[in-house]
Amino acid sequence: MLEKALRGSGKYWGLVGFLLVLIGAGLGCYLWQFREGLQITGLSRDVPWGFYISQFTFLVGVAASAVILVLPYYLHDYKAFGRIVVLGEFLAVAAVIMCMLFVFVDMGQPMRVLNVMLHPTPQSVMFWDVLVLSGYLVLNVVISRVTFSAEVKGVAPAAWIRPLIVLSIPWAVSIHTVTAFLYSGLGARPFWLTAILAPRFLASAFSSGPSLLILLCLLLKKFTRFDAGSKAIQKLGVIVVYAMLVNIFFVGVELFTALYSDIPEHKHHFQYLFLGLEGKTMMVPWMWFSQTVGMLSVLFLLNPKVRQKERFLALGCLGVIVAIWIEKGLGMVVGGFVPSTQGSLMEYWPTAPEVVIGLGVYGIGFLVLTVLYKVAVSERELEEA
Amino acid sequence: MESGRREFLKTAAGAAALGLGAGAASFVGAEALARSRAGQAAAGGGKRYALAVDTKKCAEREGCRACIDACHVTHNVPRIENREEEIKWVWKEEAEWVFQDRVHEYSGAELRRRPVLVLCNHCDNPPCVRVCPTQATFKSADGPVMMDPHRCIGCRYCVVGCPYGARSFNWKDPRPYIEHVDPAYPPRARGVVEKCTMCSERLAHGLLPACVEACAREGAGALLFGDMNDPESEIRKRVESSLSLRRKEHLGTRPQVYYTL
Amino acid sequence: MYDGGKVVFGLALFVALCTSPLWLSVARGGGGAEAPPLQMPAPAAGKCVRDGEWMRNSHMELLNSWRDEVVREGKRSEQLADGRVIEKSLTKTCLGCHTDKTQFCDRCHDYVGVKPFCFDCHVETAGG
Q1: Which of A90, A221, A255, C45 is most buried, by the most CB atoms less than 10 A from its CB?
Q2: B91 pairs with which residues across the strands?
Q3: φ/ψ (deg, to 5) at B91
Q4: What total of structural domains would you count in chain B?
Q5: Whether the Cβ atoms of residue A55 and residue A102 lie closer than 8 Å to each other
Q6: Chain C residues with CB inside 8 Å of B149's CB?
Q7: Is residue A141's pLDDT more than 50?
Q8: Which domain holds residue B51?
Q9: Is the pLDDT of residue B17 over 90?
Q10: B185: closest CA among B205, B166, B165?
Q11: 3-state secondary structure of A169
């Protein structure tokens, strides 16, 4: 099956080559960071987590969103997702790999990463996060492998896989919940100390993840003979719209609670993000851009006539991804650190090597995704031929 | 009253834990364990080391750095001027920031601007210990919150979880920033977190913490160290008889650094 | 097997690359390097905390357990079989006798090609 990834068009190899260049550049910068320490990043005493951990957080959402296909298909027998459910599982595999790599590149002592397993600490949410992410990776690798090879052979998958599939549904919810608990369980950080963080993470995941999946399906339709089918894509579009509306509602709920209660330690973080504090305004344009794009995209997609035009659907989905990537991949983490626990205002912006390392991680993830999608598409093309 | 409320909270937390499963149970379990350890120590004559800071006496010596220098020299703390990467175990901060919930706009300028000594609070319920995924930071039996730099993976979750900014991460190799390395205390490598350890290595040899000793040597007498579990100790008597503050009391961390204003 | 020739060639190349240090060593005359002469402490310093042969093989395990006991449990000293009480300290106790790290620790570590990170932090001599 995997050998299908070894034969492809010039465009395919061009993409693989491009991703390899990204990976090479990222690896080079990582070796530099490995030697010099995290001083080469923009992180600081007051903002100890930044680009890496926020990308991790965003990607956990992408990984969890596979459940949007798995649940309707396997529990409600929603046939339209039959052709793409494996694409969702492959996306989850690639996303979890990126999550793990983003945590790894963030470590000060990466050689000791196995200490987390050597000295298991159930009171630490990070320990649980490592557990659920590893478990989710294994589940998705096994499930996608077993169901897809059965499909290729034209037989029903082995019966033992079904309990695993059912298990993967709450498991998907758990990975993003535990990731939210990393943040929301800290008395030190009032910005994250909100019960709505986990629900909000899930809502943003279920809008950005399927958006990415729609874009990927449309790309496959354009560049290969694989067509996910408009019914599946339109259904995903509806899910994106409602999840995004719920996400915007949750953000509004948070804003109300922080601003109306007028409690300084809650309010200040939102002030920093949307208005700036004492002349520190680095995040302000980004946050307004994110909120505006998110709002416009969802209003745009809300209209079924617009949504049915695939070009517009793609545009709206891109808007949703950009909006959530900024909100979660930038504002959510950095906003929690400014002001710091001591009230100081130290801003953060990633440095060039930090971004290149991040791009390298994305390169690895998308290379995995490209190879897996190539296999899926080639087998599907064979079936149809 | 207080203990009744605690019991209720514990029961409620226990019920919630049953609902949430093993994960939540372990948080509550750890908390209960910490309490029972503290309780045992109190009953069995164990020690609970603490520090009391007389901020007024401290502030009277303007610009005094005796305790800070003594600590940083003793423990090979690098002097990195860059505020983003600096490492500090003990330092001074304005009262306005140290006691955000006690100082207000009508507090006198002297009080608001008063430099207050801050350091790791060696909490009885330390969030840093709770979040550490490898137990590299842990609570020792007699109170100090300790760091095991050998085990630290440098994830900085403890830095994120500490409400007092008391933890420093080594963004780079600290060695070039240590003027004179004292071989008696190993400096740290880049990529690990460090902080005040209440001079546990000195306590083991029957010495006072370096900061307390230096303060006494200066004749300031602003720092008082002792055992809170000993009802006859000077620190216990002072904390009992005067109004003392602990930082961010509402977070329930139960700091073991007491301030009098 | 499809592409049998290519597969076998690939495997052979992989094995050759992995074992190349061995072949290079043989090509250079083989026999391996001489065991380095280690500078032993003066007899006046007294006996080591453990049997010499045992230390040669297992000193790292001893140091690891000392590390955990001192840092995590606060047990800083140990009574030896012969009644002596020693401080469990690399810098003070070990290097107190083996005063020249370069002539003792480093020579053997270099010989066996290991880079213990103990010395990243633990300072070998006063002022170092």
Answers
A1: A90
A2: B118
A3: -160, 180
A4: 2
A5: yes
A6: 121
A7: yes
A8: 47-260
A9: no
A10: B205
A11: helix
User: Directed axis angle between helix A197-223 and helix A51-64, to 10°?
Assistant: 70
Q: Which residues contact A171 (CB under 8 A, 6 or more apart)?
A: A132, A135, A136, A139
Q: What is the mean pLDDT of residues B41-63?
A: 84
Which residues have a Cβ under 8 Å from the Cβ of A22 and sit 6 or more positions away?
A359, A360, A362, A363
- Length of chain B as a residue count: 261
Task: Check CB contact of C85 with chain B, cutoff 8 Å.
Answer: no
Is the domain of B4 the same as that of B53? no
Query: Residue A38 and residue B251: Cβ atoms within 8 Å?
Result: no
Distance from C-alpha of A266 to C-alpha of A196, rounded to nearest angstrom: 14
| N- to C-terminal Cα separation, chain A | 17
Q: Which of A44, A178, A187 sits opposite B163 (nearest CB)?
A: A187
Q: Report chain B residues touching chain C, CB-CB < 8 A.
A: 138, 140-141, 146, 148-150, 180-181, 183-184, 186-189, 200, 204
Residue A78 banded pLDDT, cuts 50, 70, 90: very high
Average pLDDT over residues A19-23: 98
The beta-carbon neighbor of A37 closest among B26, B86, B191 is B191
Q: Write out pLDDT tens, residues B64-102.
A: 999 999 999 999 999 999 999 999 999 999 999 999 888
Judge if B60 and B18 occupy the same domain: no
pLDDT digits (tens, 9 = 90+) for B141-174: 999 999 999 999 999 999 999 999 999 999 999 9
- Cα-Cα-Cα-Cα dihedral sign, residues C93, C98, C101, C104: negative
Report the alpha-carbon angle A52-A56-A61, nearest 5.
155
Q: What percentage of residues in chain C have a pLDDT greater than 70?
A: 93
- Which amino acid, B234? E
Contact C74 B138 (CB under 8 A): no
Q: Is the pLDDT assigned to residue B40 strictly greater than 60?
A: no
Q: Where are the domains of chain A?
A: 1-186+353-385, 200-214+231-350
pLDDT tens digits for range C1-10: 688 899 999 9
CATH number corresponding to A1-186+353-385 = 1.20.1630
Tell whether B31 and B146 lie within a shared domain: no
Residue B248 CA to residue B250 CA, distance in Å, equals 5
Question: Does pLDDT of A285 surpass 60?
Answer: yes
B38-42, B116-120, B199-203, C61-65, range with the lowest pLDDT: B38-42
